[in-house]
Amino acid sequence: MNIFHKKPFLIADIGVNYYEIAEKEEISLIEAAKLMILEAKKCGVDAVKFQSYKTENILSRKTQDFNGDSYDELFDLFKKYDQFSQEEFRQLSSYCDEIGIMFLSTPLDVESADYLDEFMDIYPLASSDLTNIPFIKYVAGKNKPILLLTGGATLNEVKNAVRAIEEVSTVDIAILHTILSFPTEYRDANLLMIKDLARNFPEYEIGYSDHTVPDSNMFVLTSAYNYGADIIEKHFTLDKSLSGDDHCHSMDPEDVMVFKTNIRFLSQISGMRNKQPLIYESSTTRSERRSIVLARDIKKGDVITQDVLTFKKPGIGISPNRIDEVIGKTALVDIEEDTIIDFDMLE
Question: Where are the alpha helices (H) located in the chain, listed in sequence order?
Fold first, then answer.
C-alpha cells in the first residue's frame, strides 16, 4: 500500500525555518513561508511540511526545569514559533495548490489536527507523539493516510503505534526512520534501520527523515533511498548560516538538485531486476566466451577424448558446457590443432 506513487517522494520540512527567513529578508512570516514553498517547488521538491500547534496545548505549565532550561525559557521558545493558526495554514495550502506542490503540516495538538483536516489530505505524526496512543487514534479516525515518524522508538513502540492506527482505520501508513538528535552525527544515522522497518512492516511504505548536516554529495539521502526509503524528508532552508535550531542541518535548493541528480543516475544504472543477457552484450559475449578447440591434430575415425580438447576464444563454436556431447564422438574428417570444433565434424 503506497501513499505516494513517485519514488522517491521528497518532502522539504520547512518546519519553522521561515521565521528566520522573514527576519533576514525583512518580509512578513506569511511571505517568507510562501517564498520557501516557491523555492522548494522550483528545485523539484514534491511536498513541503510545516508544524501546527499552540504552545499551551503541548507544554505542561508545571514544568520547572528540563535539560537545563527553565519553564519560562522553554515556553517562550515554543511560543516564538506558534504564531500561525488555521487561517495562515489555509493560505499556505491554497498557495501550494496554486503552484503545484503538496502541502503538509504536522499537528501537535487536537485543535490543529481538526482544522488541518479541511485542507490537508495526509497527516504527518511527529516522533514525539509515537507513544501518544490516544492522539494517534484521534488522528487516524479522520481516515486519511498517515506518515509515522519513529525517532527514539523501540520496534515494539512502533508496532503499538501502527496497531493503534489499524484499530480505528484502514488508512495507508508510511513509517519513517529518523534519529532524534539535532544535528545527527553521520555515525549515528543508522540507515540500516530502514531495512529493519521494511522487514517488520512489509505491507507499508517506508521512508527516512534526515537530521544530519548535508554532505556535499548528498550521500546520506541517496543511501537512504538505496536502502529502501521511498519517502525522503529533510529540513529545508534558503540559508544554512541562519540562527535557529534547524537551519544548520537543513538542505537548501542546491542540495536538492544534487540529490535529484544522484537519483537520476541511480535510476539510469539500476536497470532490470531479473538477471538476463542484454542485446548490447551479444557481440562482446561471442568474442569473450570460449569454444571447444582441438589441442592437437586428429585423424578421421579418431575418438574424441578430453585430453585432445582445450577451450579458447571466441565463443562462436561449441560451448565448453556441452563438452559431454563432444567426448566419445568420432571425427568425420582430419582436423588440425587449434580448430574450433563444430558438430558437423563429428558423428
Answer: 18-25, 29-42, 55-58, 71-80, 86-99, 110-116, 133-140, 155-168, 192-200, 219-226, 253-270, 282-288
For residue 75, what pLDDT is reported?
82
pLDDT value of position 70: 66
State the residue for C-alpha cell 538542505. 251
Question: What pLDDT shows up at residue 60?
Answer: 82
Examine residue 3 and state whether it is found in any structural domain, yes or no: no
Range of the domain at 312: 279-345
Residue 183 CA to residue 259 CA, distance in Å, equals 19
d(CA 109, CA 264): 39
Domain membership of residue 1 (yes or no) is no
Q: Are residues 78 and 43 part of one domain? A: yes
Asked if 236 contacts 48 with a C-beta cutoff of 8 angstroms, the reply is yes
Residue 334, classed as helix, strand or coil, is coil
Task: Identify whether residues 220 and 340 lie together within a single domain.
Answer: no
pTM, rounded to two decimals: 0.89
The dihedral formed by the CA atoms of 54, 55, 58 and 59, expressed in degrees to the nearest 10 = -170
Beta-ladder partners of 340: 293
Q: Mark whether 309 and 239 lie in a shared domain.
A: no
pLDDT in the model for residue 69: 63
Q: What is the C-alpha to C-alpha distance for residues 305 and 126, in angstroms, rounded to an integer?
A: 73
